[in-house]
From TrEMBL:
<dbReference type="Pfam" id="PF09669">
    <property type="entry name" value="Phage_pRha"/>
</dbReference>
<dbReference type="GO" id="GO:0003677">
    <property type="term" value="F:DNA binding"/>
</dbReference>
<dbReference type="InterPro" id="IPR014054">
    <property type="entry name" value="Phage_regulatory_Rha"/>
</dbReference>
<dbReference type="Pfam" id="PF03374">
    <property type="entry name" value="ANT"/>
</dbReference>
<dbReference type="InterPro" id="IPR005039">
    <property type="entry name" value="Ant_C"/>
</dbReference>
<feature type="domain" description="Antirepressor protein C-terminal">
    <location>
        <begin position="134"/>
        <end position="233"/>
    </location>
</feature>
<protein>
    <submittedName>
        <fullName>Phage antirepressor YoqD-like protein</fullName>
    </submittedName>
</protein>
């Protein structure tokens, strides 16, 4: 079978366009093997780096959080062959479950009834891609400015980065938490280790002059400021699309 999924807001089953291959998201794979999604994504990245699977495209899956608010989760879109490699690496005992899931997905295939419908669906997908590209292009000058600014300066604190990006602190904090960039530790934003390892953040420690208590402070490195500017632009774009 040679088809590809196009997501629609109220579709009861995936819509497939002839000529491309179906995919399964990294989050689906995580649920199948009972593993954390971030761990599955790390395994996918390592396998891609080793050349055992192709570098998968990225997409967004939309759902709601525990408070009923809409959110988008960044996922990898995995082809059938590579999904078996990934599951074999993670939990070989779940291979049978993966086979069942692929059979379920393939049984849900709904091919457009007419050539005109297929063209319409393809055009809608192309329009969404163009809109996303236009928004990112519009944000490019600001990201370029941030890049030059960050290169010329040292690490920045949370509030400094918010001012630099013109972002409200509450919104930017939510972005960092939802995108698994940082988490709260004793009420203080702390970057995840993978982002520290990537050179985007550093954690400064010190002693408060007021009460002599030790404290930690998350700092954006110049590389981290540039990276955050791009991710923030994409995050805002997704939010605008969800609200539309």
């Amino acid at each position: 079978m040679n088809t590809s999924i196009v997501t629609q807001p109220h579709a009861k089953a995936p819509v497939f366009i002839p000529g491309m291959a179906p995919t399964m998201s990294s989050r689906e794979i995580a649920e199948l093997v009972g593993s954390r999604h971030d761990k599955v994504k790390q395994s996918i990245e390592r396998l891609a780096e080793r050349g055992l699977i192709v570098q998968p495209p990225v997409g967004d899956e939309h759902d709601t959080d525990s408070m009923g608010r809409p959110r988008a989760t960044r996922v990898y879109l995995i082809g059938k062959r590579d999904s078996y490699v990934i599951v074999a690496q993670l939990s070989p005992e779940f291979t049978a479950r993966l086979v069942d899931r692929w059979q379920e997905l393939e049984s849900q295939v709904r091919v457009p009834g007419t050539f005109a419908e297929a063209l319409r669906l393809a055009a809608e997908q192309a329009e969404r891609i163009e809109q996303q590209q236009a928004a990112l292009t519009a944000a490019a000058p600001k990201v370029e400015f941030v890049d030059r600014y960050a290169t010329a300066n040292g690490s920045k604190g949370f509030r400094e980065v918010c001012k630099l990006l013109g972002a409200k602190e509450g919104h930017f904090r939510l972005f960092l938490i939802e995108e698994k960039v940082a988490y709260r530790l004793a009420g203080v934003l702390t970057p995840y280790q993978n982002h520290i390892d990537a050179g985007r953040f550093e954690v400064k420690t010190g002693i408060s002059n007021a009460n002599e208590h030790a404290f930690n402070q998350m700092r954006f490195t110049p590389k981290g400021v540039t990276w955050a500017a791009g991710e923030w632009a994409k995050y805002r774009l997704r939010r605008q699309e969800e609200a539309a």
